[in-house]
Amino acid sequence: MHDALLEGIYNNRRLSHTLATAGQPTEEELTVVAEAGFEVVIITAA
After folding, report:
1. Is the CA virtual torsion 24, 27, 32, 36 positive or negative?
2. Cα 42 to Cα 34: distance, rounded to the nearest angstrom
3. Contacts with 45 (C-beta within 8 Å, 6 or more apart), sequence order
4. Residue 44, Cβ neighbours under 10 Å: how many?
5. pLDDT digits over 6-46, tens only?
6. Which of 8, 14, 16, 29 would give a disulfide with 25, using CB separation of 3.0 to 4.6 Å?
7. Distance of CA 25 to the CA centre of its chain
C-alpha cells in the first residue's frame, strides 16, 4: 500500500528496500514516507 502512495511523491525513485530518492516531499508525504518504514530524510534544498 505504501509503495503506491510513495509513487505520488515528485520524482520518487526506490533504489532498494532501504534507500529512495525524490523531490522535496510535502508534510503529508513525509508521514507516508515514515509509515513506509524510512527513518531518515535528508533535504539538500538551498
Report:
1. positive
2. 13
3. 24
4. 5
5. 888 999 998 998 899 999 889 999 999 999 889 999 988 77
6. 29
7. 7
